[in-house]
Design brief:
Layout (H helix, E strand, L loop, with lengths): L23 H8 L8 H9 L6 E2 L5 E2 L2 H17 L3 H12 L32 E2 L1 H8 L3 H9 L11 E2 L1 H13 L9 H22 L4 H33 L2
Helix pairs in contact: 8-9
């Protein structure tokens, strides 16, 4: 069964300039304009789940139409913006094919809670987006055993109530992607330890500002922490690249 296009902004248009079906590599290039982290493995996974059905050439190569590309973009958008599990996404797409209206939940973007920065200590502050275990499993597309293993090594840490913040989704997806290259959770303990040390350095810098009674100063502390975190990540990436150049001339 061929799928009809679904709505949504972003990736659209024909699969190629002349409208002919294109290869999975060309689809990946197009999707990465909006979804830089998408991989061929991800596209194949969505195909295996029956969410997209490319045609096959006599030699077995996948060929994607413009409708397929548009559908993939819609799926990825619903995962990224709304953290919907694949079962719900499939139901939404089926409804759209039947011409039925679909009401998506509000985009699940993290709240930038400034921890009493712009709100006084006695004011009600926004709560960051939380997700449950089932939502995390669906968003990361992993099974219970994998998540339990990651938690055992401290790569994913649930709250006291068993929930997770949205950063857990990003971590889970990255750990899963690294796992495809044979990197197991035990191999990533050093990465986790390095991240905690970097977070400790940032905390040393902003701790005096966070203790300040002036709300604006505390807000400045949170902005400084975000900027330092960004610089730290960039430095880490540059150092890894430099080390690889030395080892792999």
């Amino acid at each position: 069964m061929r799928h009809t296009p679904t709505g949504g902004a972003g990736t659209s248009g024909t699969a190629s300039s002349d409208g002919k079906p294109v290869s999975i590599g060309a689809v990946l290039t197009k999707l990465r304009e909006e979804f830089p982290e998408v991989t061929i493995s991800k596209i194949r996974f969505l195909e295996a789940e029956g969410l997209v059905e490319p045609t096959r050439t006599p030699s077995g190569y996948r060929k994607f139409t413009a409708q397929d590309v548009h559908r993939l973009a819609s799926i990825l958008r619903m995962q990224r913006d709304h953290y919907l599990p694949l079962k719900v996404i499939r139901e939404h797409l089926d409804a759209l094919e039947r011409g039925e209206p679909v009401q998506l939940p509000a985009p699940a973007t993290p709240s930038r809670d400034l921890v009493e920065g712009v709100h006084g200590p006695d004011e009600e502050r926004p709560t960051a987006v939380r997700i449950g275990r089932a939502e995390l499993l669906a968003a990361a597309e992993v099974d219970e055993a994998a998540l339990t293993d990651w938690e055992a090594y401290g790569l994913i840490v649930p709250d006291a109530d068993g929930g997770y913040d949205v950063e857990a989704v990003t971590v889970a997806k990255l750990v899963a992607d690294l796992g495809r290259f044979g990197l197991e959770p035990r191999h990533l303990r050093a990465v986790k330890a390095a991240a905690e040390r970097e977070a400790g350095l940032v905390e040393q810098v902003v701790a005096p500002l966070r203790r300040h009674r002036n709300p604006q100063t505390r807000a400045h502390a949170e902005a400084t922490a975000r900027e330092l975190a960004t610089l730290s990540v960039r430095l880490h990436a540059a150092l890894v690249q430099a080390a690889l150049r030395l080892r792999l001339p």
